[in-house]
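Issue 218. Parser rejects a valid record. Input:
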Amino acid sequence: MQPKLTINCLIMKKILIPFVAVAALILTGCASPKKIAYLQHAEDYNYNDTRYQHNIKVMPKDNLSIYITATDQEAVAVFNKHFGSGANSNYISQQGGMGGSMYSYAVDDDGTINFPIIGRIKVEGLSRLEVERLIGDKIRPYMAEGENPIVTVRFNSFHFTVIGEVGSPGVKTSAREKCSLIDALAMSGDIGIQGKRENIMLIREAADGGKSVHRLNILDPNVMKSPYFYLQQNDVIYVEPNSIKKTNASIGTSTHLWFSLASVLVSSATLVVNVIDK
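Output the parser choked on:
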């Protein structure tokens, strides 16, 4: 009986080893907590130097809502009367100061907007507050002495794209100018368990249309000190698949075939063993 038992064991081993190997490969897909938790040990860092790093700049193709108020509303009414045709005549259904409506102004390829009375104003590369001050300075000569007009500027076109291993990829629009990488991921359903958190790709577009690529590690709290932690218009965020996803992808649809084949082989081996035993 001993030789027959040895033969049976050898048969079973030859059949089961490939099956066990495939199963082990798939089970290794359990991710380590160290590769999942965001901003690890964040309480150990000082972030005082990040207070002023967010500063959105106007770029060509942006769309700005502008409204002007003053003590004498009639004096500024001419600047709030929209004119022209095409992109610069778009009406924004949004209430400005003192019940007035805001209008949108497309930033042309040369970085300018066409503003009533003033004409072309170069706004490319300026922050929202800088645009407000610039327009205020340009219209002040048309005001009565001592009049201090208030200019309100808002971005209408702050959007970015998130793709890859997230719950809801696509083009996202933020109602706020201050939008961080964490905000973007939250708006996209967060990174899936098979997404690479330590090497997120951010593609940024410059005012001249050029592109630059940057890598961000959301596991490291120092990411909040990065100049790319806060998004700019037209940023693209790509969350790559991690090694687990790539491994599973390499197995692909053949995984079910392996298990089916292993099941058949095990059944066949059991039958052969039973026959030998008899």
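Fixed in the parser; the record now loads. Residues 207 and 269 are 68 Å apart (CA to CA).
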